[in-house]
Structure formats: structure tokens, C-alpha cells
């Protein structure tokens, strides 16, 4: 199993119990949509996997590594195996597409536009390959703030892929996009996962979109899993 969550529980300091002992397994290469109403705990679940949010109890095991017990340095290494894609893209506005993408290799973004020229040639080539794949190779030198929403999300996807992850953690990737662009982005994420054998947890509140693109759907409600099955068996009350 690529990812195993056992008894994953999160209580925020405010007292909110966002996850109540969630058990979940994600096999290698499986793309899974996580659905549920606002406040169900979807975002908390995704963030507990890479410990952007610290779980209160329970465990997260990625490919044999117990993520929950890791110290800072080991956690940094483990996080490289988990690419994160955000709703608001989280690009650095005044850096170019190429610079944003290459920052995925480092896990942080440098201050000057010129630093990226010192990247190994194979990193730059890989960046070009991926940007070509998502239809953005003509925009490498454009600043992030000059891009459309769909283009920004494609940059966010490429940046995550530059880590060469085993798992993508995708938090509401289409929430800021129009319906047509949303479908394009979901299709792209799915195709890339298939091509590269990546697993993904895609947190998405749009049930129709989830059903259209993900074979496995997990429904979360008030911090508990209330549905886990194929998209075709999803019933309206989930
Ligand atoms: P979803 O992503 O499904 O909308 P969240 O994981 O964002 O759900 O939230 C689950 C619950 O945890 C909600 O009750 C929310 O108010 C609470 N919550 C989320 N983040 C925080 C936080 N940083 N501090 C306190 N409570 C939080
Ligand atoms: P928008 O301005 O609506 O955000 P996009 O930036 O998403 O538009 O798309 C701009 C153009 O790029 C569209 O014509 C779209 O069909 C095309 N496009 C979208 N995804 C891809 C892709 N994966 N590969 C190549 N071209 C794409």
C-alpha cells in the first residue's frame, strides 16, 4: 500500500474535531477524489498527510515510512515524495513560469530571477518537457501574474511534478476556475497521474466533477468516512 492512514484524528486548539479516527488506504497509482460538504475535514485530511497540519493522534505511513514520527529533516525529505497542488496556485507572482516550476525541485523559492540559471541542465530540460506536456512551453518567461487561472494551475501542477513525487495531494484544484477550465485541469491531472504511475488524493467539493474523473470516491462528513467506492455507486445522500 502506498499510503495508509490509521485512526487519524485532528482536534484543533479551538476544540473543533475535524477528523475522527479516519482509516484509509491508497494503493500505488490510484487517483481518489475526496468529497464532502464544507467543514467535513477534507482539507485537514490532506494536510495531515504531509503534516502541514499536525495530527492529534493516529498514523500516516507513506511507502513504509511512518510520516507521523519524523523529525524536521526527515520530514522535509518525505515531503518531496508528496507533491501538493493548491486551489489558489500559490505561485510567486513576480517570478516567471520557469522560476516557479524550478522551485519545485528545491522545495523553496529563491529571491532573484537569475538564481535559476544555476540549476542543473537536466532539471531545466525536465521543466521544459513538462511545460510542453501541459501546453505552456511558449510561456516559460512570462511572469506568473500575467497568466490566466487555468495556466496558473498548470504551472502549479508542473511545479508539483518537478519533485518527482509518488503521491499528489490536491486541494480544491478547480475552486477558482470556470467549469470548462475545471474539466481541463481535472483531465490533465488524471492523465499525468496515469502516465507517471502517481497516486493522488483530490479534495473536491464538486461531486459531478469528481464522478466524471475519479474512479474511487471517498465521502467525508463531519470528520468521518461515510462512503468509499466507485463513482458509479455514489448515492445522492453522500
Ligand atoms: P473541508 O476542507 O472539508 O471544508 P476543513 O478540513 O477545512 O474541512 O475543516 C474541518 C473542520 O475543522 C471545520 O469545522 C473547520 O472549522 C475546522 N478547522 C479547519 N481549520 C481550522 C483551524 N486552522 N483552526 C480551527 N479549526 C479549523
Ligand atoms: P483560460 O484562459 O480559460 O484559463 P487556459 O489557459 O486553460 O485558458 O487554456 C488556454 C488554451 O490552452 C486553451 O485553448 C486550451 O484548450 C489549451 N490547453 C488547455 N490545457 C492544455 C493542455 N494540457 N495541453 C495543451 N493545451 C492545453
From TrEMBL:
Endpoints of the signal sequence: none
An MF annotation (GO) of this entry: ABC-type phosphonate transporter activity
Any matching Pfam family: ABC_tran
GO annotations of cellular component type: membrane
Keywords: ATP-binding, Cell membrane, Membrane, Nucleotide-binding, Translocase, Transport
Xref: InterPro entries: AAA+_ATPase, ABC_transporter-like_ATP-bd, ABC_transporter-like_CS, ABC_transpr_PhnC, MetN_ABC_transporter-like, P-loop_NTPase
Domain ABC transporter: 3-238
The name this protein goes by in its record: Phosphonate transport system ATP-binding protein
Organism, scientific name: Neoroseomonas alkaliterrae
Lineage: Bacteria, Pseudomonadati, Pseudomonadota, Alphaproteobacteria, Acetobacterales
